[in-house]
Amino acid sequence: MLQTADYRIYALSDTAMLIDWGNIINDDINHTVLTLFHCIKQENKPFVRDLIPAYSTLTIVYNPVMLWKQGIENMEAYLRNFIETVMGNCSEEVMQQQSLIQVPVCYHPQVAPDLLAFCEEKKITVEKLIELHSQTIYRVFMLGFLPGFAYMGTVPEILEMPRKALPAQQVAAGSVGIAGRQTGVYPFNSPGGWHIIGQTPEAMFQQNRMQPALLQPGNRVQFVPIDLNTFNSLLQNKN
Asked: At 127, phi and psi to the nearest 5?
């Protein structure tokens, strides 16, 4: 049975219900959100149009016409009962089934404009940063900001760093950054305020893939260091 913290279930609109554990970033709560996300997904209910997990909330977007055709008049009560029933039967095993995704990363100043300044600020060597960042296994908390941008955590305490006071106007696609307790990969060229410590040749989002976003909520992720030559070779082969 899924162990849940205090939560509220309420209508977000006439086509969406929200399960809300409060405005907080907490590993245990996010684990609960993602476990429930996968359990509801496994139910494969045709009236569920979308599931949107975040740090401490899960939004269920549903088709009211489909429920109305089934003779359900009080949809909010029906969905509340559905959610709480799934919660009661939800197994932790759905999270244990999440495979480990390895993402190659080049930690080199040529592709990581903030790497040296970051290490100087933290008073650690580049080698130590690579060791700490790549040996940690991260969980994808949620997707947001850009299609395929995965918020992952948590980084080792020594690597925590507030966002930049002045965001960069252009961050290259594939850039691996740190902000606060989180790490993430920019899927496209864009402005950004995270500290860029590396870059991956992997495409984080491809519209023509069966699953466009490489990373999904609940995934376990580990970064694998590669050298600059390997990075350039992989990037050239991709293009």
From this structure: -60, -40
Q: How far is the first Cα of the chain from the last one, in angstroms, to the nearest whole number?
A: 47
Q: Tens digit of pLDDT for each residue in 147-161?
A: 999 999 889 999 999
Strands 16-20 and 8-13: antiparallel
**Residue for token digits 């599931």?**
51
Residues in Cβ contact with 131 at an 8 Å cutoff, skipping those fewer than 6 apart = none
Which residue pairs from 231-237 have beta carbons closer than 8 angstroms and sit at least 24 positions apart in sequence?
231/104, 231/106, 231/108, 231/111, 231/199, 231/201, 234/104, 234/201, 235/201
Q: Name the helix (H) or strand (E) containing 204.
A: none
- Tokens standing for residue 27: 């590993």
Q: Which residues contact 233 (CB under 8 A, 6 or more apart)?
A: none
3-state class of 127 per DSSP? helix
Q: What whole-number distance in Å separates Cα of residue 11 and Cα of residue 60?
A: 10
Question: Could you tell me the pTM of the whole model?
Answer: 0.84
Q: Does the pLDDT value for residue 239 go beyond 70?
A: no
Residue holding tokens 């899927």?
187
| pLDDT per position as a tens digit, 20-68 | 998 887 888 888 999 999 899 989 999 999 999 998 999 999 999 999 9
